[in-house]
Specification:
single chain, alpha/beta, 8-stranded parallel β-barrel, two-stranded antiparallel sheet, 10 strands, globular
Length: 287
């Protein structure tokens, strides 16, 4: 399988690109370079087939910023056959915009159709084999390695292994990369009562393409909901700092999908991430 190794050219703090942010971002082209994102992430399903002004603006952004893509609807763990037509469109989009990394969720999104909701996979040997084969097929169709993202969950159906073991097994058997979501690690550590630092330490460091951070909602003391609708909390930032101390300043993407604040507030969060990365650069000792 052809392998795309350009993921290691990412650096710094990135921002999820939403159409609602584009006018403000275009208007702030002369903003301080230390505030602007170092790279952008977008969901290809939201852009494939769009023309006119949206297509022109998108091309302007992807030519100016290193770009990664985060898929929504391949349903890598689902029972229905992979949507090869969609994968073909995604491949064309990735090549057109010179996308460095393409990632998808380690979950499923429905059977006959796309629910755009991330449903938990049973953490079993059978499930590992199933999803690994589908990742291999997807990588062959795309002509590149993909990254899988650890997802937030609120149930663990038929679990025969821990989440960290499940993620490691899938990566090993499919020869894929990892998009490590720090907020999801923290959310699941509360919901399922495990040590998030041990989880981070267990991940295959040489497979991590970049990180995600986001905000969540505390519904109860023992139940957190991943919303991407608020500022990143102190506990997640502390876990992010721990990750940098262990791995060094891994490229990190800030997700914000709801209750989106003014652009200057998002840029201020990027500055916080860069400050943590700088601390991690000073404290990280390569093995």
């Amino acid at each position: 399988m052809p392998v795309n190794k350009t993921y290691n050219t990412l650096a710094g703090a990135g921002l999820g690109l939403r159409r609602s942010l584009m006018p403000a971002m275009l208007a702030s082209e002369n903003a301080c370079l230390t505030d602007k994102p170092d790279f952008l992430e977008l969901a290809p399903e939201n852009w494939i087939g769009l023309g006119g002004r949206f297509a022109r603006d998108l091309s302007q952004f992807t030519s100016e910023f290193p770009t990664v893509c985060h898929g929504l609807s391949l349903s890598l763990g689902g029972p229905a056959p992979l949507d090869q037509v969609l994968i073909g469109k995604i491949r064309e989009f990735l090549n057109q915009h010179q996308v460095l990394v393409y990632s998808e969720h380690l979950s499923y999104t429905g059977d006959q159709g796309h629910l755009y909701d991330l449903l938990p996979l049973p953490m079993t040997e059978e499930s590992v084999d199933h999803v690994a084969q589908r990742i291999i097929q997807t990588q062959d169709l795309l002509g590149r390695q993909i990254a899988i993202e650890n997802v937030s969950t609120y149930a663990r159906p038929f679990a025969e292994m821990s989440e960290s073991e499940f993620v490691q097994e899938v990566i090993c058997r499919s020869d894929c990369l990892l998009l490590l979501d720090i907020n999801n690690v923290y959310v699941n550590s509360v919901n399922h009562k495990f040590d998030p630092k041990k989880y981070i330490l267990s991940m295959p460091q040489d497979r991590i393409s970049y990180l995600h951070v986001a905000g969540h909602y505390q519904q109860a003391p023992d139940l957190l909901i991943d919303t991407h609708g608020s500022e990143v909390c102190r506990e997640v930032l502390d876990l992010l700092q721990f990750t940098y101390d262990v791995l060094g300043p891994v490229p990190t993407l800030l997700e914000r999908d709801f209750n989106v604040p003014p652009l200057k507030d998002l840029y201020a969060e990027l500055v916080k991430i860069r400050q943590l990365q700088l601390c991690g650069e000073h404290t990280h000792e390569p093995a």
